[in-house]
Structure formats: structure tokens, C-alpha cells
Inverse folding.
């Protein structure tokens, strides 16, 4: 592709200054920055919570927390990491990069965009407020049902459940607003000549994410609304005595919950091939096939949800259907792996931090995916289900596949966003520390699960002691390593070597034709793509 | 430098993963299987692990080759292909996916099909039926047919609180020990029906390969056929509140003869119990039994001292409700009385009617009214409780 | 689509409304939570917080939409912006469809799976021994364990009374909006205003009849929100639908007033079309309700 850029750069930046700039902004870059900073802060908060959990699990016996508080910690950890760290980070990238990549002046609905962001802090407050209220004797703390809200435990639960329900409502509205914006931007704001099949892969990843969000988030909203009325207004959706069924909640939750895991990763699958092609200095392999695979994953993801509760006792045909359809997802994913590896194959690779993260990501996410494939087997899942084997599986997909993917993106785009180069040495150190301590944290958990340690228990039998100890120590190193990441970002934002427009030697795409950092109004005149 | 790191971590990963499939030691794998289902599950699992291992190693090897050779620092010139171009090339790219389809649906799919069918075949040729009820936070068992019909009991965690709070040395079966284990004869197919009285629980013994949810109001089933004598331990696997980690399952598999002896023993005790319900108890007897019942069943929530954990679990010490009378002048149960609450529960407070015997209930109510800092003074006789059923 | 450069895209000025709106939502949600949890200290303040939050929300929506209308009248929105709104509205309605799908899903699940399953368990083992799994159902608790559960016996709502009339009303209103739209396209203002006015009247009529139906259900049929599977799904589905009709009617009133002020032109009237789409969507949901909740 080649471009003729006619971006003329306004000198004036007409916006209020100070805090008002951020509260009121309608600028896609400002909003993207807020999303990213919010995600980083919440990653710290969610991570600190789980550090407390790992400390408690360091050895058998109850040391630091009460079982009730332990349950609150794990559920809120998960809700924060998924809804307030990983999702906002991906949305932040969408805001920053989509308009730049497709040559748009801004996101299509800027005021809505601002609202989408400003719904997040209230949601974070709602989710964590019960902890603070409990200190003053109001209620008994945050939601203690795990992130899955399973009825009737959640019907029985305290005030924390209500707060979590409304937090989910606000997060849901935020995601729907964000998705509407992405869809409209992609369909309506592309630069002349930028046909759909010329779009950067990141736009495709996000487009499908947005569709999935619009189709599934409202179902979650409906499910928690039924939960709310069951709790307070006497409905019987999840109560056998009225003809309802607790398992119905699981169906509704996972109808959202399973697509959610792809919602989290589709944006990453979008920009990752872009990073690979940049550092392999070789065009992306199988663009079209990748696009079709992303669509296939999106479509399959909404028909496999029941693999999360194989042990509730479904009829055999249902078990078989959900098993085979789940296995089918491995085909498009394998296509993606094939294309990623073929992209770097016979390239001319160099290993700056983003590339280290990208390559490490393929391998580690591969482990997550392959263990997922094994979980899909109904018979074996009876053993794996709700053990640490599953915990290890989803941290390989969520932390390695999600967070480490996002980190690759951060290092890749940080010079473009701030105009400065980050500290490369520190970045590499961060990668190696993260990759190694991550494996040391979660590989023992595979063995714990096989040996029979259930998840969500604050205390365990003696035979699990050694692995838990290794896992905890490694988790502390993993946590500490993230401080390097934060330090590197902050120092990069404050100064450093100037970044060039193209930043990376092999970088391709419209965003690299603008200066680093790009002007406040990116493309007032749209570029023409030939 | 970077290269060596990659090699090292690569090796590490391969080794770590290899131990999954290769290492037959049970410490690194599922516990030793003792039922046909568990054995089948173990085979399926080993096979899958081997397959995924091979996939992983193959792909990793390709990647490492590429990372080592196709680098800028080695002056490797980048190719420019973006997809397969010639027909043979297209066919070549399809081969891996054909293999993957084969793996998914033939190599993994067919054994999985047979396992599922076997797993769900709970009724055919079942020798006996047991009903398992999960409640916060204990299992109770009831034998539904044969000689053992009518035997039922509650199975509570026996690990002392001091071990949990690290004030005492932890025992060998820390957290996996109960007062009344489920007793099963070996080599008999046992159909297990599951239900729950409050929230969802999951009855799981790793060595049996059986794991099934117990859902309030619904019936679910699974089966076991233990082929080896021994004591097997597992635990509740579905988050069920604060005591989720303290809800072990212990099963004793014994030869048929031993089982018969055990059944006879239980029957005798039951007869003694019903007789006990009809006799007049002294206050001391009630208080002694009551204390026992209270520490086993109630202290998790209301605490040993009776102080509770307000606001979640109310204090019984000084409770207004406890001070009110239980029965009206005709011996009818008063609504929202102490006894009503214990029999029928309310919200999180479990209903004990089905789980505890008449003497247990009479004793624990008497105990709560006259200990834990309360001094109501009256006693409740088992016969009075029996009359309410 | 995007083949030639489309000129300048309108990016609105910075605005504080979204931020305040979110703060209002936070206060309302917290207030609601306090107001429904009786045992929690602060319970009494809950309702006031909720009302305060609601006030803020309404004020913000009013101001925000007012600004949008002003921008529209100010000629800031051209074809390009207009297209964004259309895509946006479609995506929004799609999300609403998914929301209703959750409740329809619950209805089907209970009718097809959980109620028959509860009735089908081996009577030797289940607590619900002689429960018949027929629909409408209040669930086994309402039939067997009469002393322990207080689920009332009820009469289900028939389809051919008020619901059938309401169906006609909504279908007619769909036609009147379309008629109004034709008027707008042909620049016949009186037809536009008349059509919208009729639609608003029909919408209000629908709401009134629905309110009467609820009154009837509670006071004469014993059909309440607490009446098991049937009561839960009946009131949640019709209730959320009724809420959407109310919103739709308010939006119709707004565009009616705007039409009377002379807003909208045959070329530029996204405001009108957005509301009309929404109204049609509400219509279609009702048809689903009529068939699956009332009739079958
Ligand atoms: C982003 C997150 C994410 C992703 C992508 C996935 C991907 C998959 N997951 Fe996972 N999963 C979770 C997050 C995720 N999962 C979470 C959070 C839970 C637990 C929720 C809870 O209970 O709290 C869970 C639980 C979970 C279960 C339920 C387990 C249980 O509770 O009993 C199952 C069962 O089928 C499953 C299956 C799968 C499958 C088949 C995939 C497939 O998509 C994977 C497909 C990929 C492949 C098959 C890899 C193909 C690659 C190659 C062929 C080469 C690879 C090798 C190298 C590169 C070296 N997952
Ligand atoms: C995106 C999702 C995501 C992410 C990133 C993580 C990150 C981590 N998770 Fe989490 N986790 C989940 C999603 C995620 N998790 C989910 C969905 C569950 C299931 C919950 C449920 O059962 O309902 C779960 C549950 C879960 C459990 C199981 C709890 C249980 O079942 O009892 C464990 C246990 O080890 C765990 C560990 C970790 C660790 C060590 C990290 C680390 O990677 C975190 C590293 C980050 C930091 C530590 C923060 C940064 C550093 C600082 C702020 C400096 C301070 C550092 C120190 C004090 C050392 N997680
Ligand atoms: Cu019972 Cu967990
Ligand atoms: Cu899933």
C-alpha cells in the first residue's frame, strides 16, 4: 500500500486546560490515554489483591485473611482484571490507533466516546466501595461469589452482590457505547481508498469484538437484572421452588462469558501480526485467511458456552455438541498461529522489546490454547473442572495472551504516543522477568490441579504445599517486575530520546506517517489510500 | 545473550511440559484411579497430553529455527511472500489443518465420545442407590435401597480449629477428614443421586473420576464402582460460600462382608436412637449431647462462644428469639420461634429438620437456651420434636 | 463507501455532560442499593440518593440532547455525520434486541427445560412429588409445598382481551409513524404533525391499557411478580417492554414538538428516523411478547 498524506497540522489546540481538559474531552487521543492510564491503575489494584491471595496460599493454614474475605478478593481480582484492566486497555488502543490507522479525523461519536470512558471510574467505585463500607460496619464486604455470580450463592450473598451488579451494568453500558463507536468509525470514517479488505488487522479484530460485545453484553445485563429481582423482588428465575433453575444463570452468564474471552483477545490478535510484520520486515502472511478466521472465531464463540459447566449434568447429546463445537474453535485458531509463524518465517528479524513480547506471546498463548483444547473433553473435564488446572489454563490465555499481548502493544506504540523512546534495556529486563516468573507461577498450578486441588479455596491439604509455595514466590517476583513496566512508561512519557515518525524500521501503516506524537487533530483532511 | 535466554527458557518449557505426559508418577498426574471411570479418564488425559505436547514441540521447534536463523543481525534477507502461490503450496498449507481435524474429531473425539457415554450410564446394572445432599458446609448421605435402606447420616469436617489457625501441628489428613465417612462395598456399581439444600455444591473424589454438581431443588446423578479397598478423599468443588474449603468428601471402600457388618451396626444404632426419642431425657444429658451437636454443626457460623459474626451470622448469646417460647399451649410450633428457626431455617440459616435427629434437635435447642450465656431455663424433649414431624 | 474525501467532520466541543451523567448514575445506583437493603445502616437515605441521582440524570439527558438538537439546527450535521448517527442507532437497537433476547431466553428455558425437568424427576427421590410440569406454572413450590412456600395460586393472563387490543394499537401506531414519515418526505408538514400526534396518542393509550392490565393481574387474578416462573417472566418481559414504550413515547413527543417548531427537512431528519426505528423495534418486540407470553 502507498499513501498520499495531506494531513495539515493545526497549530492551535482549542481545549480547556488542567483537569477540565480530561473531564470534558472529545478528542480520541485524550480519551485513549485516559483508558490506558485507567487500565494500568486497575491492573495494579487487581494485582495487589491477588498478591494478598498468593500470600495466604503460601502455606497451608489461615494466616492473613478470613475465608469470606478471601472469596471477595478472588472475585474482585477477576472482575477488575477482566473488565477494568484488559478491556479498557484494548479500548484505549482502539481510541488511539483506529482513527490514525484508517485515516479518520476522530472517532465517529466523540461525546459518546467521552461518556464511555467516564462510566468506568463509577463502576470501579461501585465494585470496591463495599470493602470500605464494611470498615464502617455497613454490609459485609464486596461480592464473594467469584467473578461468575452463580446463583443461588449470589442470591444469598450480601450487599456486595448488589454493588457488583450495578458495576456490571455501568461497565456494560460503557462497553456498548465503546462498541457502537468502533463500528461506526470503521464503517463510516475510513479514508478514501481504504477498503475493508485493506484495513489494518487491528481494525478487523476490533470490529468483530464490537459485534460480539453488542450481542452478548446485554445478555449479561439481563442475567444480573434477573439476579437483582430474585434477590429483592421475589421473582423465581433461579429458584426451583418457582420453576426456575440455578443452571439457567450459568447458561446466561456463559453465553456472555465465553465470547468475552475472545472479546478480550481479538484486539490483540489484531495488532499482533502488525508487530510481527514490523520486526520481521516482511509483509503479513495470509491477510485474508486471518480475517476469515477472526470471523469464524467470533461466530463459533457464541455457540459453545456450556463447556464451562460440563459437570452440572446435561443430557448426553448436549455434552457431545458442546464438546465438538468447542474443539472446532481450535481450527481457526490454528490458522492464526500458522499465519503468525509464517509471517516471521524467513523474515529479517530484530528483537526489540515489542518483538520479544510478541514472540513470547505466541508460545505462551499456545500453551493456554492447547490446554483449553484438552479442557474441552467432557470426560477429562470432570477432573479438571474447577481445579487449579483451569486456573493455570486461563492465566496462560488471560495474562500471557491478554496482558502480555497488551504490553507488546504498549511498547510498540508508546514512542508514537509520547514522542519519546522508552528505555530498551529496562523493557527487555521487564520481558524476561515477566516471562520467567509467569511460567514459574502457573506451571506448578497445572500440577496442583492434576493432583486435585480445587480453585477458590483459602486453605488446602498438606500434599499441595510445595507447589503452592513455588507459585507464590514466583507470583511476588511477577508482581514486582510490573513495577519496571510502570517506571518505564512514566519515564518515557516525561522525556527521553526523540522518536522518529516511523519509529520502527519496518513499520507500515498510516499511523507511522504522522509525527510522533501526532498532532491534536490527526487527519483534518483525510489522506487518500491508493 | 538473548539467544541463550530463549534457548534456556525453551528447554525449560519443554521439560516442564514433557513431565505431564511422560511422567507416570501419580504425584505429577491424576491420583491413582480406582474406578473404571477414573481409569478411562486417566487414559484420555494422558493421550491428550501427549498429543498436545507433540503439537507444542513441533511448533516450538519451527519457531526456534526461525528465530535463530532469520535474523537481521545475521544479515538474513527478508522474503516477500504473503501466502501460498502455486497449487502444491496451497495443498501443503492444508496438510496441517487436515491433521488437526483428524486429531480433534478422530484421535480425541472418538475416545471422548465413549467416555461420555460411559460416564452418563448411571442406571444400568446399578447394585445400590445412595442419595447425597450438599448443604453449607457438610455432606449428608442416605442409603436408598437394599439392606442399608434408611441409614442416613451427616458427615462433618473434624479438623480442629487450632490446626487451621496454626496453633497446633497439622495432622496427616488436614482438611480431608470427617467424622462419618461414606461407606461403600467394593466392586459394586453405586448410583449416586445428588441434590442440595441451599446453594450449588459439587461432590468430587479425584480417585473416582466422578464429579457432579449438587443443585438445590434438582436431582443429578453419577456413579462409582470402587475396585480397590481403601479410604478415598476429595472435596466440594463448587464455590459455596465461606466454608467451601472445609467441605471434604471421605469414602471408605470395604469388602462386602465388612459392609454388611457396618450396616447391621448402623441399624442397631438407629433403633437405639428412635427409642431414645421416646424416653424422657434429663437436662444434663441434653446439654451434653447439645454441646456436641452445636460444635459440629452450628459453631462454623454462630461461633463456639455463640457470639456469631454479625451482621452475616447473628449472635445467639442474648438473642431475643432464643428467649421466646417454642411451643404454644397445645404443643404446636410457634412461627419464628427458636425451634422453628432451627427446624425450618431462614435465608442463609439452614433447615435442620432433615439432617438432624429428634434428639439432636431437642438437645441443641436446649443447649442454646441454657448455655452460650443464655439462661432461659426450659428444656425441650426429643418426644416433643418428634410430635411435630 | 468511503471513496472520495468527504470534507470536514464535525467534532463537538469538549463537554461536561457525560461526566456528570456518569456521576448521577453512580449516585442513583448506590441509592437504589441502600433502599433495597433494609438491614443496612444508611437504608433510609437510599431513596433520596436515588431520586437525587435520577434528577441529575434527567437534567443531563435534557441538556445533552438539547445541545445535539441545537447543533443539528445550527447546520453542523451534514451527510457524513448523519451516516454516523444511523450506524450508531442501528448498533444501539441491536444491543437492545440482545437485551430482550436474554429474557425471552429465560422464558423458553423455563418452559421447555426446567419446569418439565422438575416434574419429571423420580418421585421417590425428589421433594416435588406430584408436580405437573404444565405451562403456565408457578413452579412446584406453588403446588406441593403449600405450607412452606407462599406462592399464590393465580390465573394466567388471556391473550384475546387487552393484549389483542394492544397489538392492534401498536400495529396502527407503526403505520401512523410511517404515514408521518411520508408527509415529511413530501414536505407536507400537517401530515407529519398529524401522524406523529396520532402515534403519541396510540402510545399513551397502550401504556394506559397496560397499566390497567397490571392492576387487574394483581388485584383480581392473583398474578404477581412473585408468582413463580410464569409471574417472573410475564412481568419482567412486559415490564421492560412497557418501559421501552414509555421511553419511545417521550421521544415521540419530543419530535412532535420539534416538528411543530418546524425542525426537520425532507433531506435531513435523522432525529425523526431514529425515533421511528426505535418505535418499530418496540413494536416487533411486542409481537414476540404477544405470541410467546400471552398466546401460546
Ligand atoms: C482469553 C481467554 C481465553 C481463551 C482465548 C480461551 C481459549 C479456550 N478455552 Fe478457555 N477459559 C478462559 C479463558 C480463555 N480460554 C477462562 C477465563 C476460563 C475459566 C472461567 C472460570 O471458570 O472462571 C476458561 C475455561 C475453559 C473451560 C472450562 C474449564 C472448566 O471450568 O472446567 C474450557 C473447556 O472447554 C475452555 C476451553 C477453551 C478452548 C477450547 C479454547 C480455544 O479457544 C483454544 C484454541 C487454541 C488452540 C487449540 C491452540 C492452537 C495452537 C496450535 C495448534 C499451536 C500452538 C503451539 C505453539 C504456538 C507453540 N476454557
Ligand atoms: C486478565 C485477567 C487476569 C490477570 C491479568 C490475572 C493476574 C494474576 N492472577 Fe488471576 N484470575 C483471573 C484473571 C486474571 N488474573 C480470573 C478470571 C480468576 C478467577 C476468579 C474466580 O475464581 O472467580 C483469577 C484467579 C486467580 C487465582 C485463583 C484464586 C482461587 O481460585 O482461589 C490465582 C491464584 O494464584 C490468581 C493469580 C494471579 C496472579 C499471580 C496474577 C499476576 O499476573 C498479577 C501480576 C500483577 C501485579 C502483582 C500488579 C502489579 C504490581 C504491583 C501493584 C506492585 C506490588 C507488587 C507486590 C506487592 C509483589 N488469579
Ligand atoms: Cu460446598 Cu463448595
Ligand atoms: Cu469458554
Amino acid at each position: 500500500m502507498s499513501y498520499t498524506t495531506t494531513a495539515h497540522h493545526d497549530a492551535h489546540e482549542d481545549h480547556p486546560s488542567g483537569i477540565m481538559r480530561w473531564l470534558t474531552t472529545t478528542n480520541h487521543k485524550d480519551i485513549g490515554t485516559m483508558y490506558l492510564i485507567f487500565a494500568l491503575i486497575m491492573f495494579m489494584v487487581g494485582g495487589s489483591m491477588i498478591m494478598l491471595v498468593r500470600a495466604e496460599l503460601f502455606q497451608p493454614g489461615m494466616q492473613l485473611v478470613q475465608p469470606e474475605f478471601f472469596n471477595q478478593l478472588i472475585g474482585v481480582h477477576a472482575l477488575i482484571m477482566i473488565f477494568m484492566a484488559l478491556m479498557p486497555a484494548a479500548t484505549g488502543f482502539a481510541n488511539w490507533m483506529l482513527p490514525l490507522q484508517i485515516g479518520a479525523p476522530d472517532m465517529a461519536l466523540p461525546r459518546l466516546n467521552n461518556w464511555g470512558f467516564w462510566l468506568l471510574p463509577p463502576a470501579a467505585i461501585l465494585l470496591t466501595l463495599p470493602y470500605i463500607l464494611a470498615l464502617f460496619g455497613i454490609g459485609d464486604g464486596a461480592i464473594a461469589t467469584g467473578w461468575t455470580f452463580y446463583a443461588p450463592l449470589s442470591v444469598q450473598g450480601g450487599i456486595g452482590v448488589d454493588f457488583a451488579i450495578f458495576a456490571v451494568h455501568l461497565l456494560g453500558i460503557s462497553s456498548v457505547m465503546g462498541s457502537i463507536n468502533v463500528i461506526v468509525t470503521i464503517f463510516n470514517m475510513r479514508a478514501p481508498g481504504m477498503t475493508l479488505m485493506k484495513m489494518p488487522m487491528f481494525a478487523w479484530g476490533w470490529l468483530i469484538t464490537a459485534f460480539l460485545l453488542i450481542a452478548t453484553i446485554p445478555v449479561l445485563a439481563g442475567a444480573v437484572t434477573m439476579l437483582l429481582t430474585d434477590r429483592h423482588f421475589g421473582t423465581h428465575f433461579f429458584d426451583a421452588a418457582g420453576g426456575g433453575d440455578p443452571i439457567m444463570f450459568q447458561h446466561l452468564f456463559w453465553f456472555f462469558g465465553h465470547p468475552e474471552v475472545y472479546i478480550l483477545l481479538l484486539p490483540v490478535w489484531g495488532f499482533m501480526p502488525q508487530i510481527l510484520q514490523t520486526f520481521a520486515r516482511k509483509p503479513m502472511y495470509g491477510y485474508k485467511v486471518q480475517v476469515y478466521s477472526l470471523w469464524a472465531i467470533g461466530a463459533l464463540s457464541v455457540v459453545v458456552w456450556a463447556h464451562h459447566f460440563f459437570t452440572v449434568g446435561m443430557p448426553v447429546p448436549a455434552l457431545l455438541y458442546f464438546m465438538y463445537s468447542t474443539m472446532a474453535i481450535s481450527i481457526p485458531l490454528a490458522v492464526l498461529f500458522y499465519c503468525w509463524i509464517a509471517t516471521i518465517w524467513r523474515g529479517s528479524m530484530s528483537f526489540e522489546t515489542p518483538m520479544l513480547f510478541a514472540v513470547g506471546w505466541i508460545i505462551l498463548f499456545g500453551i493456554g490454547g492447547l490446554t483449553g483444547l484438552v479442557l474441552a473433553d467432557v470426560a477429562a473435564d470432570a477432573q479438571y473442572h474447577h481445579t487449579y488446572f483451569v486456573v493455570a489454563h486461563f492465566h496462560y490465555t488471560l495474562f500471557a495472551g491478554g496482558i502480555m499481548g497488551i504490553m507488546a502493544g504498549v511498547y510498540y506504540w508508546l514512542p508514537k504516543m509520547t514522542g519519546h523512546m522508552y528505555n530498551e534495556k529496562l523493557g527487555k529486563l521487564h520481558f524476561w522477568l515477566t516471562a520467567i516468573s509467569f511460567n514459574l507461577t502457573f506451571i506448578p498450578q497445572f500440577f496442583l490441579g492434576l493432583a486435585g486441588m480445587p480453585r477458590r479455596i483459602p486453605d488446602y491439604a498438606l500434599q499441595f504445599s510445595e507447589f503452592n509455595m513455588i507459585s507464590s514466590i514466583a507470583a511476588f517476583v511477577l508482581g514486582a517486575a510490573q513495577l519496571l513496566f510502570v517506571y518505564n512508561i512514566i519515564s518515557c512519557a516525561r522525556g527521553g530520546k526523540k522518536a522518529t515518525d516511523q519509529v520502527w524500521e519496518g513499520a507500515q501503516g498510516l499511523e507511522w506517517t504522522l509525527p510522533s506524537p501526532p498532532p491534536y487533530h490527526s487527519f483534518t483532511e483525510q489522506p487518500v489510500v491508493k | 545473550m538473548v539467544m541463550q535466554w530463549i534457548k534456556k527458557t525453551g528447554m525449560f518449557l519443554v521439560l516442564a511440559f514433557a513431565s505431564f505426559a511422560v511422567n507416570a508418577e501419580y504425584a505429577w498426574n491424576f491420583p491413582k484411579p480406582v474406578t473404571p471411570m477414573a481409569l478411562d479418564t486417566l487414559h484420555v488425559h494422558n493421550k491428550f497430553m501427549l498429543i498436545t505436547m507433540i503439537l507444542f514441540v513441533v511448533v516450538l521447534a519451527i519457531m526456534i529455527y526461525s528465530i535463530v536463523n532469520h535474523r537481521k543481525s545475521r544479515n538474513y534477507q527478508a522474503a516477500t511472500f504473503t501466502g501460498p502461490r502455486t497449487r502444491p503450496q496451497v495443498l501443503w498449507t492444508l496438510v496441517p489443518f487436515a491433521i488437526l481435524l483428524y486429531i480433534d474429531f478422530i484421535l480425541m473425539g472418538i475416545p471422548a465420545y465413549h467416555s461420555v457415554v460411559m460416564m452418563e450410564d448411571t442406571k444400568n446394572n446399578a447394585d445400590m442407590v445412595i442419595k447425597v445432599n450438599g448443604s453449607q458446609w457438610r455432606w449428608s448421605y442416605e442409603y436408598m435401597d437394599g439392606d442399608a435402606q434408611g441409614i442416613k447420616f451427616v458427615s462433618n469436617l473434624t479438623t480442629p480449629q487450632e490446626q487451621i489457625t496454626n496453633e497446633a501441628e497439622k495432622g496427616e489428613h488436614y482438611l480431608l477428614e470427617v467424622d462419618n465417612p461414606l461407606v461403600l462395598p467394593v466392586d459394586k456399581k453405586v448410583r449416586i443421586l445428588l441434590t442440595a439444600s441451599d446453594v450449588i455444591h459439587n461432590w468430587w473424589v479425584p480417585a473416582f473420576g466422578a464429579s457432579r454438581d449438587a443443585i438445590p431443588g434438582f436431582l443429578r446423578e453419577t456413579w462409582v464402582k470402587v475396585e480397590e479397598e481403601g479410604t478415598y478423599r476429595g472435596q466440594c468443588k463448587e464455590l459455596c460460600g465461606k466454608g467451601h474449603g472445609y467441605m471434604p468428601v471421605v469414602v471408605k471402600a470395604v469388602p462386602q462382608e465388612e459392609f454388611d457388618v457396618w450396616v447391621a451396626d448402623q441399624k442397631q444404632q438407629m433403633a437405639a436412637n428412635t427409642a431414645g426419642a421416646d424416653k424422657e431425657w434429663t437436662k444434663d444429658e441434653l446439654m451434653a449431647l447439645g454441646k456436641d451437636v452445636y460444635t459440629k454443626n452450628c459453631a462454623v457460623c454462630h461461633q463456639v462462644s455463640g457470639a456469631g459474626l454479625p451482621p452475616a451470622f447473628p449472635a445467639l448469646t442474648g438473642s431475643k428469639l432464643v428467649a421466646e417460647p417454642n411451643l404454644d399451649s397445645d404443643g404446636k410450633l410457634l412461627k419464628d420461634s427458636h425451634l422453628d428457626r432451627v427446624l425450618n431455617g431462614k435465608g442463609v440459616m439452614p433447615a435442620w429438620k432433615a439432617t438432624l435427629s429428634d434428639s439432636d434437635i431437642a438437645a441443641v435447642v436446649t443447649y442454646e437456651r441454657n448455655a452460650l450465656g443464655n439462661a432461659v431455663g426450659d428444656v425441650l424433649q426429643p418426644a416433643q420434636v418428634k410430635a411435630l414431624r | 463507501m468511503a471513496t472520495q474525501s468527504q470534507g470536514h467532520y464535525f467534532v463537538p466541543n469538549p463537554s461536561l455532560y457525560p461526566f456528570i451523567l456518569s456521576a448521577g448514575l453512580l449516585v442513583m445506583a448506590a441509592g437504589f442499593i441502600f433502599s433495597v437493603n433494609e438491614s443496612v445502616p444508611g437504608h433510609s437515605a437510599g431513596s433520596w440518593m436515588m431520586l437525587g441521582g435520577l434528577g441529575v440524570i434527567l437534567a443531563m439527558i435534557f441538556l445533552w440532547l438539547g445541545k445535539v438538537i441545537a447543533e443539528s439546527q445550527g447546520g453542523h450535521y451534514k451527510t457524513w455525520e448523519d451516516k454516523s448517527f444511523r450506524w450508531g442507532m442501528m448498533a444501539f437497537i441491536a444491543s437492545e434486541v440482545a437485551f430482550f433476547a436474554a429474557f425471552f431466553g429465560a422464558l423458553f428455558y423455563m418452559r421447555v427445560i426446567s419446569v418439565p425437568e422438575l416434574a419429571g424427576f423420580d418421585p421417590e427421590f425428589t421433594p416435588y412429588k406430584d408436580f405437573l410440569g404444565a405451562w403456565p406454572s408457578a413452579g412446584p413450590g406453588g403446588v406441593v409445598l403449600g405450607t412452606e412456600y407462599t406462592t399464590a395460586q393465580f390465573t394466567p393472563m388471556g391473550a384475546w382481551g387487552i393484549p389483542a387490543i394492544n397489538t392492534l394499537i401498536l400495529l396502527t401506531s407503526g403505520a401512523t409513524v410511517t404515514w408521518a414519515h411520508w408527509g415529511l418526505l413530501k414536505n407536507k408538514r400537517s401530515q407529519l404533525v398529524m401522524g406523529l400526534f396520532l402515534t403519541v396518542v396510540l402510545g399513551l393509550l397502550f401504556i394506559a391499557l397496560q397499566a390497567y392490565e397490571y392492576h387487574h393481574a394483581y388485584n383480581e387474578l392473583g398474578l404477581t411478580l412473585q408468582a413463580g416462573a410464569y409471574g417472573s417472566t410475564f412481568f419482567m418481559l412486559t415490564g421492560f417492554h412497557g418501559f421501552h414504550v414509555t421511553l419511545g413515547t417521550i421521544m415521540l413527543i419530543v419530535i412532535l414538538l420539534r416538528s411543530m417548531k418546524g425542525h426537520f427537512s425532507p433531506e435531513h431528519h435523522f432525529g425523526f428516523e431514529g425515533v421511528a426505528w426505535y418505535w418499530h423495534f418496540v413494536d416487533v418486540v411486542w409481537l414476540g411478547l404477544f405470541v410467546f407470553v400471552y398466546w401460546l
Q: What stands out?
A: Chain A touches chain C through 85 residues (CB under 8 Å). The pocket of copper (II) ion (ligand 4) is lined by residues A 258, 261, 307-308 (CB under 6 Å). Residues 26-529 of chain A form a domain with the Cytochrome C Oxidase; Chain A fold (CATH 1.20.210.10). The radius of gyration of chain A is 23 Å.
